[in-house]
């Protein structure tokens, strides 16, 4: 492995794809704010406790099994440990300034241990093994929640997320649109590739500009005439049979795109 020389004055350090096998020797970075260690061979999070100025840590695409040894990084705002082999969400309690957390494509089966992250604005947990939406009541500042490609069967426990503007739960096992009544600021809702049969439960989501319910089992376009700010309506690959259903969209003046391909029209 080549020797990497680090500039002690550097604020942004990018060591993407350097075949680094171990995190060591970074203590010299006295001013570092961004540390990118993407696409390396790192197996363990360690030896970072001196980097107390760090705001962003990127460990995407390594071989990390556990979230650990981050306690001293109290200034951290962005953490990405996507594409690793994590099984649990843990070790984040002290990161109270965290605004964005990316844990995509791991082996996580449960949403847990997030209650101290009250500043969190974006949570990305796509492509894991999560079965339930739970333990997110404390995340009152959350703006975006991504849970695509999991094993979630029910829309629930979202009531506390009143500031949420983007919710994505594509490619799961949902059969019903429900539990969204408190999400009055929701602008984008992505529910494609589920088993939803009826458009319903959107009574309070008047600010929606984007509704993606493609690739479900929906037979009728209904219960959306009140979504007057809607711009994008993706409804392809469903079971809609009648063109007259489009009357439901007559009052939606800002509508730009409607996808209806592969319906039995």
Features:
265 residues; Leucine-rich repeat, LRR (right-handed beta-alpha superhelix); 14% strand; 2 domains
What does this structure look like?
It is a single chain. The chain is mainly beta and 265 residues long. The chain has 2 domains: 1-127, Leucine-rich repeat, LRR (right-handed beta-alpha superhelix) (Alpha-Beta Horseshoe); 130-264, Leucine-rich repeat, LRR (right-handed beta-alpha superhelix), CATH 3.80.10.10. 0% of the residues lie in helices and 14% in strands. It contains no helices and 12 strands. It has strands at 12-14, 34-36, 56-58, 78-80, 100-102, 122-124, 144-146, 166-168, 188-190, 210-212, 232-234, 257-259.
The count of domains is: 2
Reported for the largest beta sheet, the result is:
12 strands, parallel
Radius of gyration: 21 Å
SS strand fraction: 5-15%
Overall residue-averaged pLDDT value: 97
- Order the strands across the largest sheet as they lie in space: 1-2-3-4-5-6-7-8-9-10-11-12
């Amino acid at each position: 492995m080549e020797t990497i020389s680090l500039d002690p004055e550097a604020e942004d350090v990018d060591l993407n794809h350097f075949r680094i096998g171990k995190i060591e020797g970074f203590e010299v970075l006295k001013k570092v704010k961004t540390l990118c260690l993407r696409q390396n061979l790192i197996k363990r999070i360690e030896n970072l406790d001196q980097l107390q100025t760090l705001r962003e840590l990127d460990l995407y695409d390594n071989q990390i099994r556990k979230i650990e040894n981050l306690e001293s990084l109290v200034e951290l705002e962005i953490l990405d440990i996507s594409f690793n082999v994590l099984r649990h969400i843990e070790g984040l309690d002290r990161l109270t300034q965290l605004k964005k957390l990316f844990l995509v494509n791991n082996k996580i089966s449960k949403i847990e241990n997030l209650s101290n992250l009250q500043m969190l604005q974006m949570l990305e947990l796509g492509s894991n093994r999560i079965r339930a939406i739970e333990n997110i009541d404390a995340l009152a500042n959350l703006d975006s929640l991504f849970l695509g490609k999991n094993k979630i069967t029910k829309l629930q426990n979202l009531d506390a997320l009143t500031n949420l503007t983007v919710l994505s739960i594509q490619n799961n096992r949902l059969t019903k649109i429900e539990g969204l009544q408190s999400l009055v600021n929701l602008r984008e809702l992505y529910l494609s590739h589920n088993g939803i049969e009826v458009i319903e439960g959107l009574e309070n989501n008047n600010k929606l500009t984007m509704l993606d319910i493609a690739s479900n089992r929906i037979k009728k376009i209904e219960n959306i005439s009140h979504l007057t700010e809607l711009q994008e309506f993706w409804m392809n690959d469903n079971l809609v049979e009648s063109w007259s259903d489009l009357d439901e969209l007559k009052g939606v003046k800002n509508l730009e795109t409607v996808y209806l391909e592969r319906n039995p029209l």
